[in-house]
Amino acid sequence: MAATGQGATLTFTPVSGAIRSITMSDFQLGALEDSDLSTTNFKTYIANDLAEPGTITVEIIFDSTNALPTLGASGTVTVTFPADGNTTAANFAGTGFVSGVKVPDLQLGELQIATITIQMDGKTEPAFTAAT
User: Fold this and answer.
1) Are residues 66 and 116 in contact, defined by beta-carbon separation less than 8 angstroms?
2) Which residues contact 122 (CB under 8 A, 6 or more apart)?
3) In degrees rounded to 5, what are phi and psi of residue 129?
4) Which of 3, 30, 57, 101 measures 20 to 30 Å from 72, CA to CA?
């Protein structure tokens, strides 16, 4: 079923505020070149042993009465997707830490948006649970 992100939530203690957007992680598995002197035309590769757990970027509507998160603050991060008529909503969870904080730009006629980057640390393997 097609849906929008309306109703999605993020639970991660270091981040608070009205969430404007959540940009989800992508998992990347690196490649190791295994070409040798007999290889011709193209390099050859095998899959790396470990995947990169990725990052989650959150844009929040800045409120100067709320503190911005501290770099390095860590914990469990859970993104809950909209239920879209399902009994339980899908979610994505793992552990991570705040690796970036962008203070909002100040412009006429524009909302102040802060950007928080969460580096998934791989200590608790990121996992996606489908809706039911």
Assistant:
1) no
2) 53, 94, 95
3) -115, 125
4) 30
Per the structure block, which two tokens stand in for 25? Answer: 């992680």
Distance separating alpha carbons of residues 25 and 52, to the nearest angstrom: 10
pLDDT at 4: 85
Give which of 6, 13, 25 is closest to 73, Cα–Cα.
13
All residues at 6 or more sequence positions from 27 whose CB lies less than 8 Å from its CB, including other chains: 51, 52, 53, 54, 126
Q: Which tokens hold the place of 103?
A: 């203070």
Segment 92-112, tens digit of pLDDT: 999 999 999 999 999 999 999
pLDDT along the chain (132 residues), means of 10: 83 89 91 97 96 95 92 96 91 96 96 96 93 93
Here the tokens at position 27 are: 């998992």
Shortest CA distance to 125 belongs to which of 85, 92, 89? Answer: 92
CA angle 49, 52, 88 (to 5 degrees): 110
Q: What is the residue whose two structure tokens read 């109703």?
A: 7
For 9-129, which CATH class?
A: mainly beta
Q: What CA–CA distance (Å, rounded) separates 114 from 9?
A: 17
